[in-house]
Q: What sequence folds into this?
């Protein structure tokens, strides 16, 4: 509370009760950096493939001899491109301008399953009596918050399969 320039009064009293005073300037400085403590965090992407990291997610009880004025994170916005482990730096600045920092591992996860959408398709056998159907032939605009791959089971057909066949489209 007394950081900066302070005026103090010194009073001296002798054995007879006589007093004299003078004033002096005392400059109080805080040169001790804050102790910044991190913990690792896990965040999940939303339907739009985005997640936000907050100071509270990684701050693990940071403190200072006076008080911490502000915190900053080296990264707060995450997308599908950040899946897995990411290093993030938390920096704290105290009221005297001293800074300290720590590093946390932020694990970004995608827990939202893709949505596979199918449509019926017709495949014509080739001259050798076989045909391979690509997943795109039965895909009807499948979606996901991140990228995905499509697979089709079964995907190969022969003369033995002429007529209606049930296939499974899998979005991963």
A:
């Amino acid at each position: 509370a007394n950081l900066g320039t302070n005026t103090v009064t010194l009073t001296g009293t002798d054995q007879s009760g006589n007093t004299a005073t003078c004033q002096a300037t005392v400059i109080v400085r805080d040169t001790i950096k804050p102790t910044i403590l991190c913990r690792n965090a896990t965040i999940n992407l939303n339907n739009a493939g985005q997640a936000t990291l907050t100071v509270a997610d990684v701050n693990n009880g940071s403190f200072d001899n006076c008080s911490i004025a502000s915190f900053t994170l080296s990264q707060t916005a995450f997308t599908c491109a950040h899946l897995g482990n990411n290093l993030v730096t938390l920096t704290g600045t105290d009221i005297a301008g001293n800074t300290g920092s720590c590093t946390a591992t932020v694990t970004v996860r995608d827990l939202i399953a893709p949505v596979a959408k199918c449509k019926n398709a017709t495949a014509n056998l080739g001259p050798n009596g076989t045909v391979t159907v690509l997943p795109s032939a039965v895909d009807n605009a499948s979606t996901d918050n991140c990228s995905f791959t499509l697979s089709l089971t079964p995907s190969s057909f022969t003369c033995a399969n002429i007529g209606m066949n049930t296939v499974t489209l899998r979005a991963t």
The mean pLDDT is 96. The first strand starts at residue 4 and ends at 13. The radius of gyration is 34 Å.
